[in-house]
Amino acid sequence: MTDAATSPSGFDTATLSDMLRVAGSPDFDRWREQIHRTGGCSHPIHLTGWTLTRDKTTGETLHRYSTETEPGGRLRIACGNRRASRCPACAWTYAGDTYHLIRAGLAGDSTRDIPAAVREHPRVFLTLTAPSFGPVHNRPGAHPCHCGTRHNEDDQTLGTPLDPDSYDYTAAVLFNNHAGQLWQRFTTRLRREIAATAGLSQRELRAVARISYGKVAEFQKRGAVHFHAVVRIDGPDGPDSPPPPWVTTDRLTDAIRAAATHAYTTVTVPAAGAHPACRLRWGAQLDVRPVKVFGDGSDITEQAVASYIAKYATKAAETTGSLDRRIGNREALLLLGVPDHTRRLVEACLDLDLVYPERRLSAWAHMLGFRGHFSTKSRQYSTTLTELRQTRADYRAAQERTARGLDDIAPDTVLVLTSWTYAGQGHTPGEAALAATIARDIHLNRETAREALRDQLDLEGTGA
Question: What pLDDT is recorded for position 346?
Fold first, then answer.
């Protein structure tokens, strides 16, 4: 028996009615084209306005566009949100850009003036973790958890404290809040360690070698942030120059281990109110592995590293059960069913905000205190996300010029006038359901094309 408020298709009757309205409208094809161009964006931005292209010399109007003829009088463009929980379509694009950014720094990219010779530079894949704030439920290999249970991979208790009352929630959120500073101190100390191995000062080191990196933050199940990073050593001019012969992968690895455990690589949070001073540092679990062009079963490859970092660039604290937007009040935690452990972390942020107001813990409570960028890189590691987006925009602009018959006209002889106004964001319920279908079709087509390309490369590799 079908619920009165739900149609046989699985949609509630209000959503189904709206879907029929949208699909039956005379401009549905144009609406679908707009949504397809956004990649199936879940929360497109609506714009109203016009653009006019004129010949500077003759004053002739070459092209005119206005949103007056668009569905609802609006143009819909992608929201660009990186979070997969908010917009899977735009997050897919962001992950792809991050993949190319990281891989360019590992394998080179001729279109970005990054030489393939960077493959010969010392480079490692590094993971820095948080220290322990109390024992938690885990899966320690073949042995059962300390609670005596062998947890499944999808067990909701994984990462939660064995004894919540003794878990140091204060230190946990303060660590997240200061993780960016800990990373900064780590990179500073790393330069000093590498210089020291050669008997050089930091200034002398800059004259012969430079350290570059690209990193991403990931939340563990216990709600503590940790960093994955590619660390590479170049010559004095960045990726265009080779590092000195004495800089090897082993020496880089040793310097990383020394820097991560050095007393300098700590942050002291001063005492305030009833909270004593505490000293924050990286955890004992440190993983440093060389990056290989091709794997041998034990080493990780360029593609694997780039894929791993790109995967986590679209995720945040919502993987722990937290919200993916700012929290207005404590009542929201209960109303939205936030898990107990995550709720305690959020509440610790709200409490500590009164003690350390300069740290803005309340504003970042939904991130469990973490206030840094999830994906960052040093200046000379590789290209930038801005450059990648501009390349995509230039490609689309070239397509538009071709479609309008403007290829034969020099760009500097054209005057473009525009006027755009923000007119809202998002979908109606019916539009959202249809847009999700479009997004799934786009994703399926991409996966099919990717499988076909992989099969072709496999055939070429076997000489078939």
Answer: 94
- Are both 69 and 119 inside the same structural domain? no
Q: What's residue 416's pLDDT? A: 87
Number of domains the chain contains: 2
Euclidean distance between CA atoms 182 and 107, whole angstroms: 28
pLDDT tens, position by position, 107-139: 998 888 899 999 999 999 999 999 999 999 987
For 110-144, letters b (16+ CB in 10 Å) and e give eebebeeebeebbbbbbebbbebbbebbbeeeeee
Does some domain include residue 306? Answer: yes
Range 387-390 contact pairs with CB under 8 angstroms and sequence separation of 24 or more: 387/112, 388/97, 388/100, 388/101, 389/97
106 lies in some domain:
no
Helix or strand run (H / E) with residue 394: helix 385-403
User: Do 45 and 128 fall within a single domain?
Assistant: no
290 and 423 share one domain: no
| 370 alpha-carbon distance from chain centroid | 14
Domain that holds residue 283: 115-133+174-328+372-381
**Does position 391 have pLDDT exceeding 80, yes or no?**
yes
Least confident of 209-213, 228-232, 331-335: 331-335
Task: Return the sign of the alpha-carbon dihedral for residues 21, 23, 24, 26.
Answer: positive
CA distances from 274 to 88, 106, 165, 355 (A): 43, 48, 18, 9
DSSP 15: H
